[in-house]
Design brief:
This protein is of the alpha/beta class. Among the domains are: 130 residues, 3-Layer(aba) Sandwich (Lysozyme-like); 50 residues, no CATH class. It has a five-stranded mixed sheet, sandwiched between helices. The N terminus is likely disordered.
């Protein structure tokens, strides 16, 4: 009896351990199933032939492919942990998502196929682009909005950026922040984000180390911001977003003499 009880306990322990391990490995098994179901529904929609216009005929072309992303938008989560953000992005009621989440420890969570449209950007504008979600990859960094970004996190971010830039031929200038496209609503990534370091690797523009002694008298800062891509409908918000990205030490809505030199330098790069 003692032996049988020991074996029963042993197998019970294995069963419990297996269950716990399975849950630990994939705590999002149920939402993964929902993801697969939704992808199948989208595939079904694509397979359906469109109804022809009355009096006309449907002729399917042989020359087409999937749409590809042309921008990368970088965010901070403004939440307290990666786990909290994963939960937020797997609850249907939140209506928010991203292609990638990167934890402080450098762990990368790929949440959505890059060719699919995530709901990360919301209302925003960059240049003439007004539906940023349809043309971008969204990357969320686990950060409460005030703290520095961890080195393992930035290293993983660089790995992801290197991959998507190569895969989709994304232009250097098209790596931008959420605040850049939505200056009246957003302030991410925060001022600790290493935009200069990323620009040196080909992800985003940055000003030259040597600037002009003075900008031309005819220089128009509002026009320069618009040329770079900012929505200047609210000029104060556009200036603050510009300074969050390129100045980082002073986030007021006033362009100083030095700020204007930086803006002029970048404006020339975008012409």
């Amino acid at each position: 009896m003692q032996i049988r009880g020991t074996f029963n306990f042993f197998f019970l322990a294995i069963a419990i351990a297996t269950t716990i391990t399975s849950c630990a490995i994939n705590p999002y098994a149920s939402t993964n199933r929902i993801y697969k179901k939704q992808v199948k529904e989208l595939a079904k929609t694509i397979r359906q032939l469109p109804d022809p216009i009355p009096g006309q005929d449907w002729v399917g072309t042989t020359n087409f492919s999937l749409r590809k992303p042309n921008y990368v938008i970088i965010h901070h989560t403004a939440q307290n942990s990666t786990e909290e953000t994963l939960k937020t992005f797997t609850l249907p009621r939140t209506q928010v998502s991203a292609h990638y989440i990167i934890g402080k420890d450098g762990m990368v969570y790929h949440m959505l196929n890059d060719y699919l449209r995530a709901w990360h950007a919301g209302n925003g504008k960059w240049g003439n682009q007004t539906d940023i979600n349809s043309s971008s990859i969204g990357i969320e960094l686990d950060n409460n909005g005030f703290e520095p970004f961890a080195e393992p996190q930035i290293k993983s971010l660089i790995t992801v950026l290197t991959s998507v830039k190569k895969d989709y031929s994304i232009p250097t200038a098209n790596f931008i922040g959420h605040a850049d496209i939505a200056p009246t609503r957003k302030n991410d990534p925060n001022a600790n984000f290493p935009w200069k370091r990323l620009s040196e690797l080909g992800f985003g523009k940055w000003q030259d180390s040597i600037l002009v002694d003075s900008v031309p008298e005819t220089f128009n800062p509002a026009e320069a911001l618009r040329i770079i891509g900012y929505d200047t409908t609210d000029l104060t918000a556009a200036i603050k977003a510009f300074k969050l990205h390129f100045i980082q030490t002073d986030l007021t809505a006033v362009l100083t003499v030095e700020d204007k030199k930086v803006l002029y330098n970048l404006y020339k790069k975008y012409l």
